Amino acid sequence: MNILILGDIVGRVGRRGVKEVIPRILEKHMVDFIIANGENAAGGNGLTPEIAQELFAAGINVLTMGNHTWDKKEIFTIINDEARIIRPANYPPGTPGQGYGIFRVNGKNVAVVNLMGRVFMAELDCPFRKMDEILLELQDVDYIIVDFHAEATSEKIALGWYLDGRVSLVFGTHTHVPTADERILPGGTAYITDVGMSGPLNSVIGVKTNLVLQKFLTQMPQRFESASGPYIVSGILVSLTEDGKAENITRIQYIEGE
Ligand SMILES: [Fe+2]
Ligand SMILES: [Fe+2]
Predict the structure, then answer these.
(1) Percentage of residues in the chain with pLDDT exceeding 90?
(2) How far apart are CA 150 and CA 153, in angstroms?
(3) DSSP-derived 3-state class of residue 10
(4) Ligand 2 centroid to residue 194 C-alpha, Å
(5) Which residues are catalytic?
(6) Cα-to-centroid distance, 117 and ligand 2 (Å)
(7) Do you know which InterPro entries this protein is assigned to (predicted)?
(8) Cα 140 to ligand 2 centre (Å)
(9) 202: pLDDT confidence band, cut at 50, 70 and 90?
(10) Looking at the CA of 197, which ligand is closest?
(11) What would be the CATH architecture of the domain defined by 2-201+231-255?
């Protein structure tokens, strides 16, 4: 089972990037299933039904979310019914949408779970204990894949160890900056702290550079906008064996024009 993961898709540039890059990846690699983080896909904040459809049409099978899940109010019209959109599972009980989904891929059941960190972020329920609960509900699936949407590297690495041998893959999102620590942990779980973003190359994590600089220089409120220009598309390719363990994790990156 070969899985392609693409990091946070930021705005129009990120969407153009994944639409152009996915066919190039599929030409070179066997890919059975594509997961991307969609929390920034609509103008940098949130996701709309139209943009979700645009990304599914580009070949993405599942969109995971994060702290920007609720930024576009249109999300509420689909989040309860669209099984391919997964929001952090550790929101309090009663929150719209679903925290994980099970998808049929080549005769296997693949579970995709989204969790959000609590260090330097909103105080959701404990992602570690929430995952313990979810694993009890996922005993019959073949592969479990976790998007841990979190800020602190320590919290992400800790969850990787906590889930080692219990899931197939833990990948990080949210910082929009890829880390070089991809590896297979001793129990057979593939792990990376952050896969990076799919968005504007010349930006501050997707946002127009001058607006972010103004914010840092003046500490005055700024309305952030996604940057334009060339894209960078960042992600990982992961191969999983029949027994649900990982045998390879490779970082990929495509820069427009290179
Ligand atoms: Fe993000
Ligand atoms: Fe985020």
Answers:
(1) 100
(2) 8
(3) coil
(4) 11
(5) 68
(6) 10
(7) Metallo-depent_PP-like (IPR029052), YmdB-like (IPR005235)
(8) 30
(9) very high
(10) 1
(11) 4-Layer Sandwich (3.60)
Instruction: Quote the ligand 2 centre to 174 CA distance (angstroms).
Output: 4
Closest ligand to Cα 67? 2
173, 194 in Cβ contact below 8 A?
yes
pTM of the model: 0.98
Ligand nearest to the CA of 234: 1
Between the CA of residue 227 and those of 175, 187, 201, 231, 257, what are the distances in Å? 16, 41, 8, 10, 17
Which residues are close to ligand 1, an ion, with C-beta < 5 A? 8, 40
Domain positions in the chain are: 2-201+231-255
CA angle 75, 80, 83 (to 5 degrees): 100
Confidence of residue 172 (pLDDT cuts 50, 70, 90): very high
d(CA 193, CA 154): 9
Count the neighbouring beta carbons within 10 Å of the beta carbon of residue 242.
8
Report how far residue 154's alpha carbon sits from residue 233's, in angstroms, rounded to the nearest whole number. 25
Q: How confident is the model at residue 149 (pLDDT cuts 50, 70, 90)?
A: very high
Q: How far is the CA of 149 from the centre of ligand 2 (A)?
A: 6
Q: What is the mean predicted confidence (pLDDT) over 18-38?
A: 98
